[in-house]
Amino acid sequence: MKILSDSKVGFDPISLIVDGKRVFPMMGEMHFSRYPHQYWEEELCKMKAGGIDIVSLYVIWIHHEEIHGDFDFSGDRNLRLFLETVKKCGLYAILRIGPWAHGEARNGGFPDWLLKDSVDNGYEVRTDAPRYLEHVRKFYEKTFEQAKGLLIKDDGPVIGVQIENEYGHCGGKNGEEGEQHMRTLLAMAKEIGFEVPIYTATGWGGAVTGGMIPVMGGYCEAPWDQRTTEIEPSGNYIFTRERNDHNIGSDHGLGDGITFDMNKFPFLTAELGGGLQVTKHRRPIATGLDTAAMTMTKLGSGANLLGYYMYHGGTNPEGKLTTLQETKETGYPNDLPVLSYDFNAPLREYGQMEDTYRQVRLLANFIHDFGSDLCDMIYVEQPGNPLKPDNFEDIRSAVRCKDRILFDGETVKSGYLFVNNYQRRYKMAEHKNVELRAYDTDGKSILAEFEKIDVEDGDFFFYPFNMPVGKKAVITIDATPVCQVADFDGKGHVAYIFYKDSEKEPSLTVKGELDGHKVIVITRDEAVHGSKVVKNGKEHFIISNGDVVTKADGKPELYFEVSENETKHAVFKAFPELLDTPDGFEVLKKDDDSFTVYKSQNSHENRAEAFWSTDECSDKLNVSIKVSNMPSDRNEMFMSIDYEGDTAEMYFDGRMIADSFYTGQKWEVGLKRFCGNECEAFCCDINIQSLKENTKLYLQKWPEMTDGKACRVNDIHLIAQFKIEI
């Protein structure tokens, strides 16, 4: 996706349009004020390598004006520097300027002084009350000072602005009064100078939008739910025309609770849960497969923008007057960690690239090469597709397709059959030896049929039919498309890469001539660990247990991890073969007729050690940790703490620097921000609060109790992250 200062950007009921062409962007949320500014560039490059085109970001009011009139846009709060870095990394931005944000921030992002002022002067926030609007105007003006000159019209990265958040769904006014307030805020933003081609508003759950483009959401679970039991299955794994996830699986009519006309706006998402932020009372774990299956379901249901909240986790900044997290004490429904906003996101609190990152990247690879063509493929409901998420017996399926005129003048239906047999936390029926068919809108005409397969519990995939390969052929194949590699042979031909779960050879039907173009089928595991990289102006598909990130200067680097007491060489395989073997690497072997394997000549070693002692005091365990022998050539050192308890806090020089709500996962803390990469030693203290067996709390798996409680450290591991240019 390329947007220039003079580009014509708009939309129709189908998709966003740039310079007359349909575009399908990938968007991810990162909060600059929740991450150390010295690492912004590295993290934004990771986001781009993960497939993100647009960075969405809250400007959280309380982070910038905690004290009335004392605005702070310095250090980690430096919005201008962040936007400049977004541009440097080749990304775009959508500013979510509130004034109310939520974002699990204190008061939803409102400063305490604003709420006190509203009480003292008898007005209601989030309305057209003149005194409230005066305060909002000042905040908007100060925010615009940071963004001035960085809008897309000025050749900057900012292409859009979101006004308010969940207005009319979480607070605010409904009906015409709510619509008018949204129009008031939009007019104010424009008057101040926020002139951008895209204005959005969240549209789910009855939120009002003021005529702006509605963006939708969907999460795989609900940590804000006040229950502490297993909850009903999420409707976000159901194929449906319904955009309002609050309405999926209900007996209400299509679009019930939505305040806008779905026929006038494209289906765009801004808050697909990239993970879940745990709360004190409810701590579900979102896995990479949870997110991937949900995303594919939205894709099959007609979404034409995939936006993730959060895409990058973070850490709440230190407040001047109070802590800055959401709490029940301030009238909000949940207690959150003081510091951690990890979210189990694709990129986690300390920039960890884990399975969710790779699962989302896999879909992004597809979107970047096939998304524009997908945009005007309509959603076609399939016969037998269940509409309620508690149906675990029937295969869930959808089709997106359109008419395509072939090279010989024939018109055919071209598109994709989507199949989902995944429901988070529930077992789906297995379907043996089934023949999958794609049906047209009449529910009877068969558009494509595929060889019989077994659809297992947890499977989700999509198959193309009549997909163009070059200009002289279309193919139908029972494998999922990954990406294209242009000019793989230096003769202008394109390689089309697919993956297949089973060991069974894919069934490929070709109509026409491939004419030198190539079809490559890899495993799903290889696809998940693969990324498309441009090196020396040429496209390559690289597979590695590490992750390739291209720096802002265009040079790709391979990130990889080495466990303690381990020595490892960096290894990757590439298609096509690299023009030049990277410095410090050797060609290990030609894996087959497609991929070439490379191995670093030098190994990387991790001899770091962690020593700890414990002191139990009543319902708390105090742990003193000393880390030594950290390798000096590392990029990061992750301390992985296997503890059991209710909560944990980490202290350095007497100041709390990290915290955790226990979920059953290992608590991973990146040490780079605390001691740099030159230091070989690090010391800290941890306080663990015991978890009692009668605590009202939802955990997916409880720890073993001793004398009615759990409060222990099982182990501490040190994982060194290295990076090497390839």
UniProtKB/TrEMBL annotation:
GO terms for molecular function: hydrolase activity, hydrolyzing O-glycosyl compounds. It comes from the Bacteria. The keyword Heme does not apply. SUPFAM superfamilies: (Trans)glycosidases. Keywords: Hydrolase. InterPro entries: GH, Gly_Hdrlase_35_cat, Glycoside_Hdrlase_35. GO terms for biological process: carbohydrate metabolic process. Residues 15-365 form the Glycoside hydrolase 35 catalytic domain. Belongs to the glycosyl hydrolase 35 family. This is Glycosyl hydrolases family 35. It comes from Butyrivibrio proteoclasticus. The lineage of its organism: Bacteria, Bacillati, Bacillota, Clostridia, Lachnospirales.
